[in-house]
Amino acid sequence: MKTLKEIKVNETCKIVKINGQGPVKRRIMDMGLTKGTEVFVRKVAPLGDPIELKVRGYELSIRKADAALIDVE
Length: 73
Prior knowledge:
Blueprint: E1 2-3, E2 12-18, H1 22-30, E3 38-44, E4 51-55, E5 58-62, H2 64-67, E6 70-72
Antiparallel strand pairs: 1-6, 2-3, 2-6, 3-4, 4-5
């Protein structure tokens, strides 16, 4: 299974599972990233952090460490 961190720019994927515990998982879910959500990877910063996403019609930046916790298909 791939993580959100491994998805290339201009690709769309679907969230399968969010790993992590407590506040980290809560922070990810508070951003609107929940199971079944479609995510479009818009841009990755030159050094790989942050990753810019388009989720449910709005733009979002997420840390590479957080993206590694999100399993996608």
